[in-house]
Specification:
homodimer; Aspartate Aminotransferase, domain 2; Aspartate Aminotransferase, domain 1; seven-stranded mixed sheet; 14 strands; 15% strand; globular
C-alpha cells in the first residue's frame, strides 16, 4: 500500500493540485493592490457561478457562518420565519434562527423526503412568516430539492427565500437571479473545489431592503459593512488570503470547464453511482432521480453495520466516505461526488465497498457495479 | 528586479515555506481520525504557547470573530463593560460590544499613549463594569501595554479581563494562567506564522461560569458547543482543515525555537528597528521601550507624505509596510516585525526607506540605519 488517500465524503471534497498550490503561494497583504485585484476577480467569478448580478459577500467562516449572516441581517427579534427541513441541515438552520430569538415555524419532513412547493405555500399562508429557509441539497440524505419551485412558492406567499446551496452550488443547476433566490448561501469546500474556510451569501435588492430594517445584533457578519469594503476589494476584517487565492484559481477551473458541463458531469456521476450501487444489489436511500447528483446515500445489507464499513474502507484502503447522522448511523453510508471528481473515483469507491461487503458475507453481485457505473456515465454524457 | 516580494506589514505576516507546504497537502475529512489527531495536537500546542491549562477554542474566522465570541459568550444585553482604548483595535472592541447592546464605558487614551493600571482600576470602580477589554499589543500604534498589571487592576476591581493578544501572542511574553487572564484572543496570521483564517479564545473557569449565565444570542461562535466537540478533536462546523495543518506545523516551529527565544528575538528585532530608525534621523511614534517589540510606527520627515512612501516601497521594491489609520495617514508608517522574521528583514526595510527618503530630499543620515540595526540586534541577543 502506497498510503494513497481518497476523499469521497460530501465535503470537504478533493481539491485540485493547482488550487492547493495557489494557496501555498506567499501570503500577500490584504490591504494591498494585488489582493484587491484578486478579491474583485474572485467576486466576479462567484457572481458568474451563482448566476447573479447581485452582491456576493465572502466571509472568512464555514457555511454555517454565512447562514448566520442571513439570520442576523434579515431578521428582528421575535420575527417569524419558516424553516423547511428534511434532514440535518434543515434542522440546523431552524436551531440557528431559534438561538437568535426568531419565531421559528417548521415544515418538517422525514429524512430522505423531498419538500413540496404546495406544502411550503400552505405553511407560509398559515404562519405568515416573512422569510423562508430552503435547503437546495440536503447533504445528510442526498436529496436535491426543486428549489426553483420552492422559492416560487415562497415568493407567491410573500416570503423571502433564503437558500442553503452549500453542497449544490457548482454541482447542480442554480439560477440565483432567474429563479428569484433573494439570498443564496454556499461554502468553498464542496463543488467550488477549495479547502474549507470561506463562505458566501448573495444578497438581492429585496434582501438589502429587509436588512436595513432588521435589528438583530451583528458585527463580524454584518452585510452592509462588508459590502462597502468589498466594493474596493477589501474587507472589514483580515480575510483568509490564501484561501481566497485558492478559491479564485478553483473558480477559474470551474468556469473553464463551463457550468453546464460541470452540471452534466455531476448528473452523470450521480447516475453512475446510483446505477453501480443498484447493480451490486444494494438499496438506495437517496432518491434515484437526476437532480440528486451531489451525494448518494446507501443502505447497507442486513447484518452489516455501516459504521464498520466506513471504518474499514478508511483503515484498509484509505478511502473516506461519510457515515450517516443520527438514527441512521448503523444502516447508511454516503458517497460524495462533488467537485474535483470523475467516474473513476466512483468506480474506486464501488470496488472497495464491494470487496468489504463480500468478505462480510453480504448477498451482493460481484463485478457488476463498476461496469454499470462506467456504462451509465458514458451514456449520460454521450462520451 | 526578480519581482521578489517582502511582506513587512504587522499582519498578515510572512509564513515559513514549510508551513505553506503543510497547508497544500491534500485535504482530509474533518470527522476522520487523522484530523482529530491533528486538531488535538494543535490545541495542545496552543495551550503551550498561551501558557494555559484552560480550554483553547479555535475558530474558523479572523481575530475579530474570536473577539466577538468573547462578547456574545460573556455578556447579557445591557450589561456594563469597560473598553480600554488607545488605538484602532481598542475602539473596535468597544464598537463590537455596542453593536450587541452592551453598556460600553470607555477609558480612552490618545493614540500612542500607554494605558495605566491605576486608570483602569479607577474607571472600573466608577462604572462597576463586570468585564474589561484590554489590548495587549495595539497594532495601530506599536504600543504593547503592561497587560499583566492592567489585568491585575481589573481583577482587583472585580472585573473579568478579556485580552486582545492578536498581534502579541508568540511575540512578547504573555502568561494566560500566571497573569490571571480569563480570556485571551488571538489569530493565526501574526506571530503564529500561519495564513489568516483561524483565531482562538482561551477560556478560564471564571469565564466559563460567566458564559453559562450570559444571554446574548450565539450560534457560530458558541463556546460550549465548540468545547464539547473540540474535546474529541472535532468541531460543530466544517473547520478550515488546511489552515489547521499549517497552524500545527507553525506551532511546532515556534515551540522548537522556544517561546523565550522567540520573545528575545522579537525584543531584539524591535530594538534593531527602533535604533535603525533613530540613526537615520527619523522620529518614532512607537514608544522606545523593550516591551513594544511587535510593530514600529515611524513619523515621516516634514514634506514627505507617508502614503506616498508606502506606495513607492511597494511599487518599486516589492516591500509592503503598513500605512497609518485615520488622521495619522499622511505622517506615519509602520514596519511589522512579527513571526517569521530576522534582522535582515529589518535591514531590508530600513535600506529601502532610506533610499526613498533621500531621493525625496529628506534630511536623513545615509548608511547609519542598517549598521545600527545590526549592532543593536547583536547586542540585544548577545550573538
Amino acid at each position: 500500500m502506497p498510503g494513497k488517500r481518497y476523499l469521497m465524503a460530501p465535503g470537504p471534497t478533493p481539491v485540485p493540485p493547482e488550487v492547493l498550490a495557489a494557496g501555498a503561494e506567499p501570503v500577500i497583504h490584504h490591504r494591498g493592490p494585488d489582493f484587491r485585484e484578486l478579491m474583485l476577480r474572485c467576486l466576479g467569478r462567484l457572481q458568474e457561478v451563482c448566476r447573479t448580478k447581485s452582491d456576493v459577500l465572502l466571509f472568512t467562516a464555514s457555511g454555517s457562518g454565512a447562514f448566520e449572516s442571513a439570520v442576523v441581517n434579515l431578521l428582528s427579534p421575535g420575527e417569524r420565519v419558516l424553516a423547511v427541513s428534511a434532514g440535518e441541515f434543515g434542522d440546523r438552520w431552524a436551531n440557528l434562527a431559534r438561538a437568535y430569538g426568531a419565531d421559528v415555524q417548521e415544515l418538517r419532513y422525514a429524512w430522505g423526503e423531498t419538500p413540496e412547493p404546495d406544502d411550503v405555500r400552505t405553511r407560509l399562508e398559515e404562519t405568515g412568516a416573512a422569510v423562508a429557509f430552503l435547503v437546495h441539497s440536503e447533504t445528510s440524505t442526498g436529496v436535491v430539492a426543486d428549489v426553483r419551485a420552492l422559492a416560487q412558492a415562497a415568493r407567491d406567499a410573500g416570503a423571502l427565500p433564503v437558500v442553503d446551496a452549500v453542497s449544490s452550488l457548482g454541482a447542480v443547476p442554480l439560477e440565483t437571479d432567474a429563479w428569484g433566490l433573494d439570498v443564496v448561501i454556499s461554502g468553498s469546500q464542496k463543488a467550488l473545489m477549495t479547502p474549507p474556510g470561506l463562505s458566501l451569501a448573495t444578497v438581492s435588492a429585496a434582501a438589502w431592503e429587509r436588512s436595513a430594517r432588521a435589528s438583530l445584533p451583528r458585527f463580524y457578519f454584518d452585510w452592509a459593512k462588508l459590502r462597502d469594503q468589498l466594493a474596493t476589494g477589501s474587507t472589514p476584517f483580515t480575510p483568509a488570503v490564501t484561501l481566497v487565492a485558492s478559491l479564485d484559481r478553483a473558480l477559474a477551473l470551474l468556469l473553464e470547464e463551463g457550468l453546464e458541463a460541470a452540471f452534466a458531469r455531476h448528473a452523470a456521476l450521480g447516475r453512475a453511482c446510483r446505477d453501480g450501487v443498484k447493480a451490486m444489489g444494494l438499496t438506495l436511500f437517496s432518491p434515484d432521480e437526476e437532480r440528486s447528483a451531489v451525494v448518494t446515500a446507501i443502505l447497507t445489507p442486513d447484518g452489516v453495520d455501516a459504521r464498520e464499513l466506513v471504518l474499514e474502507l478508511r483503515e484498509r484502503f484509505g478511502i473516506t466516505v461519510a457515515g450517516a447522522h443520527g438514527d441512521l448511523g448503523a444502516r447508511m453510508f454516503r458517497i460524495g461526488h462533488i467537485g474535483y471528481y470523475d467516474v473513476f473515483d466512483i468506480t474506486t469507491a464501488l470496488a472497495a465497498v464491494e470487496v468489504v461487503l463480500a468478505e462480510r458475507g453480504a448477498d451482493i453481485e460481484r463485478g457488476a457495479a463498476v461496469a454499470s457505473a462506467v456504462e451509465a456515465y458514458r451514456a449520460a454524457l454521450r462520451v
